[in-house]
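Blinded run. Sample ID left blank on purpose so nobody reads anything into the name before looking at the predicted structure. Input follows.
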Amino acid sequence: MGPIKAEELRIGNIIYDNEVGHKGDFKVGAGDILHLKTSLDHEYSYLFLTEEWLLKFGFHQMLTKRNYYIKTVFGEMTVDSIDFIFDMKNKFVCEDIGSMVIPIGREVNCVHEFQNAYFWKTGEEITVKDD
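Blinded prediction complete.
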């Protein structure tokens, strides 16, 4: 993976700031995206999606399929509840079709890609779960 491109980010995505004095993950704002488009002196990097991030987002491991994590979504954009399923081993968002779970979309390796896929599928922003 090369450097992060502004075009792959949305406001609210979580990435890593490598700048001395700022090191850590943070939510991207409009100014950060503009800065990425116009400057090469600031170093942002990808945050790789881990089980820890899935748990922070409120997912839990499925009992019958151990590589899969699930979150049931009830929201304004969804007529009924939907299950958002992620295959941690193969890094794909999945669809539950009766007795089968099939991958959809493209491979998801980073937190911001996961956030974007979640928004695409549910129409809602995913948030970090409060402890």
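Unblinding after everyone has recorded impressions. Helices lie at 30-38, 51-56, 111-122.
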